[in-house]
Amino acid sequence: MNRDLHVVVLMGGWSSERPVSLMSGKGVAEALRERGWSNVSEIDMDRNVAQVLTELRPDVVFNALHGAPGEDGTVQGLLELMQIPYTHSGVTTSAIAIDKELTKLLLVPAGVRMPAGTMVKSATLHERDPLPRPYVLKPVNEGSSVGVAIVTEGSNYGSPIGRDVEGPWQQFHELLAEPFIAGHELTVAVLGDEALCVTELKPKVGFYDFDSKYTDGLTEHICPARIPDDIAQSMLDMARTAHRVLGCKGASRSDFRWDETQGEAGIYLLEINTQPGMTPLSLVPEQARQRGIAYGELAERIIAEALAA
Questions:
Q1: End-to-end alpha carbon distance in the chain
Q2: Tell me, what's the pLDDT at 145?
Q3: CATH: 1.10.1670.10, 3.90.1150.10, 3.40.50.1000, 3.40.50.20. Which one for 7-88?
Q4: What band does 214 get if pLDDT is binned at 50, 70 and 90?
Q5: Residue 255 is a catalytic residue
Q6: Choice among 209, 255, 286, 300 that is catalytic
Q7: How far is residue 195 from each of residues 115, 251, 252, measured CA to CA in Å?
Q8: DSSP bridge partners of 169
Q9: Is 277 one of the catalytic residues?
């Protein structure tokens, strides 16, 4: 690979996942420099990003943004118009994958099991539960478990949920309600067309929320997961199918719940992330290491796919 190419690492932005994006972007930029890339620029994206890119004239953009507008097709569309190659998924894939309901419409008919869900107006939650408890509420187009609430019989949210109780219903006009899937929290990264492995995530407190994902020591990562081979293979197959059906590029990460009392029928894909984190605690680099792929090589492989498109 030509390490003299000018790589711009696009990071930051203004989504709720900005801090994670900054960590991902800085990690990628440092790794590329360590592997001999001589021309790496870092951009903390603002509203003048098109002007900055015009001035820098990169050969390729490493998209390290998380959340909108870097993960929903908006930045991808800008880069397409500017005719700049970029990493990860394209416009259509990004727009679909960030929307959990649209994702279901494509993946469920392709044989990927996902929880049944319904969109609800947040205001109605203070009148009645949309589903039998326990159930999960989440924004339809956020990642990193931003705005996720698990509503149980004994939760402090009240029954029905109190109007003054803190939760995603105060931040989002609409929410996706899904049945709570008991059991194991697992994830699978796909790089190119290869599913890497299965990691089990065991938060030490509560569930695998934003803090548990990005605070060192709050979650135990078991990589590879200590689960039956047939269950692991089913998840690998489902993650690869999701990556292929949606048209993902570079790396993606599919998150699962597994109710072991139901066997293979208890595997549910919750969502697919087309811009997975590249921080020191992120799951894609961890799974890549498990397969003998160093962090810097991982970044280079993602760039190579972008340049080959």
A1: 15
A2: 60
A3: 3.40.50.20
A4: very low
A5: yes
A6: 255
A7: 22, 10, 9
A8: none
A9: yes
